[in-house]
Amino acid sequence: MKNYKIAVIPGDGTGPEVVDEGLKVLEAIAEKCDFKYETESFDFGGERYLKTNEVLPESAVEDLKKFDSIFLGAIGHPDVKAGILEKGILLKLRFDLDQYINLRPVTLYDERFCPIKDKKPEDINFTVVRENSEGLYKGLGEFQNKGTADEVAIQTSYNTRKGVERCLRYAFDYTQKYSKKKMLTLCGKTNVLTYAFDLWERTFYEVAKEYPDIKTDYAHVDATTMWFVKNPEWFDVIVTDNMFGDIITDLGAMIQGGMGIAAGGNINPNGVSMFEPIGGSAPKYTGKNVINPLAAICSVGMLLKEIGEIKASEMVETSAKLVVREKLQSLAAGRMGYSTAEVGDLVVKNLK
Ligand code: IPM
Ligand code: MN
């Protein structure tokens, strides 16, 4: 029997609450699908930082490399200056574990929860493949004449051929393997960012030659946001850089019903991946048992797929979908008609 080692980082705010529900579902599905797992919890996050003044222990990255996968709740604390934990924990782990893909499915489970009129589940069903290791997130730049009237702040987008190519290859492979329409859209801004997206565009069409069965498509990022609202049914798989991917996936989360349901994976196809609800730590709902745990539960579903437990992954997704369609009044915190823990219980009960 397989025995997986899973690292758990509950993190800040509502992170621990939603992680509990994710683990509840993991326990139930492991029993049903005959695999075993061990978890080890890491206390990374705002509380630890405030107590120890250390964002991440020296050994964290090496320790995490020993696991089959990582399940993360949320990072971000109201008493810690914005950027410290995000850069010091979340982005550091993504970079140092070389999780160069951020995979974010946008799936509408029930039309009642779509803010766009007349859109149905079949209309909103696509995946964003976000580059996760370069671009503006690389943190390159400088101040000139800081604090003076002539101050200049420069922030550089860093794109390597190798980095762009591996992301594009992942996206083409993903499209070939999982998508129905077999169409990959490159989302960029070739009309303005004439260095960065020139490289992306050239590489895209070169790699495309190796995938004659995949239809290629291109959209500027501004137009992409327009189409997410106007005709999301156009999209199948979208590949884009780190910054654009960050932005369009928040919009993606909204059209699929909100942050309560949006799951994502930071993937290193040759190493350790990390799965997280993309909604953040939601301080105002912390400890109230009202936050929607489905994004975390669906992240467990994605984790299961990545480690090869395909059937278990499908069962979690099917149950989450059923709970959304047949039980919940809303996907928003406090309005679901059930508590956080009750939603977890419902998903467990409906695993089949
Ligand atoms: C996300 C978040 C992070 C990002 C922040 C918290 C650093 O917004 O996962 O989308 O920008 O990638
Ligand atoms: Mn984001």
Defining key terms:
single chain, 352 residues, alpha/beta, Isopropylmalate Dehydrogenase, 2 domains, ten-stranded mixed sheet, two-stranded antiparallel ribbon, 12 strands, 22% strand, binds 3-isopropylmalic acid, binds manganese (II) ion
Fold and architecture overview:
- With 352 residues, the chain is an alpha/beta fold.
- It has two domains: 1-112 and 260-352, Isopropylmalate Dehydrogenase (3-Layer(aba) Sandwich); 125-255, 3-Layer(aba) Sandwich (Isopropylmalate Dehydrogenase), CATH 3.40.718.
- Helices cover 39% and strands 22% of the residues.
- The protein has eleven helices and twelve strands.
- The protein has helices at residues 15-33, 46-52, 60-64, 84-96, 161-178, 196-208, 221-230, 242-255, 294-306, 310-326, 340-349; strands spanning 3-11, 36-41, 69-74, 101-107, 125-131, 135-144, 152-158, 183-188, 215-220, 237-240, 263-267, 273-277.
- The strands form two sheets. It has a ten-stranded mixed β-sheet, with helices on both faces.
- The two termini are 20 Å apart.
- The mean pLDDT is 98.
- The structure holds 3-isopropylmalic acid and manganese (II) ion.
- The site of 3-isopropylmalic acid (IPM) has 5 residues, from helix 4.
Question: Helix and strand layout, with pairings?
Answer:
Blueprint lengths: L2 E9 L3 H19 L2 E6 L4 H7 L7 H5 L4 E6 L9 H13 L4 E7 L17 E7 L3 E10 L7 E7 L2 H18 L4 E6 L7 H13 L6 E6 H10 L6 E4 L1 H14 L7 E5 L5 E5 L16 H13 L3 H17 L13 H10 L3
Parallel strand pairs: 1-2, 1-3, 3-12, 5-10, 8-9, 8-10
Antiparallel strand pairs: 4-5, 4-11, 6-7, 11-12
Helix pairs in contact: 1-9, 1-10, 1-11, 5-6, 7-8, 9-10, 10-11
The chain binds 3-isopropylmalic acid and manganese (II) ion.
The site of manganese (II) ion has 2 residues, from helix 8.
